[in-house]
Amino acid sequence: QVQLVQSESELKNPGASVKVSCKASGYMFTTYGIHWVRQAPGQGLEWMGWINTNTGKPTFAQGFTGRCVFSLDTSVTTAYLQITSLKAEDTAVYYCARHCSGGDCSSQLDYWGQGTQVTVSS
Amino acid sequence: QSVLTQPPSASGTPGQRVTISCSGSTSNIGSNTVNWYQQLPGTAPKLLIWRDNRRPSGVPDRFSGSKSGTSASLAISGLQSEDEADYYCAAWDDSLNGPPYVFGTGTKVTVL
Question: What tens digit of pLDDT does each residue of B71-92 get?
Answer without folding.
Answer: 999 999 999 999 999 999 999 9
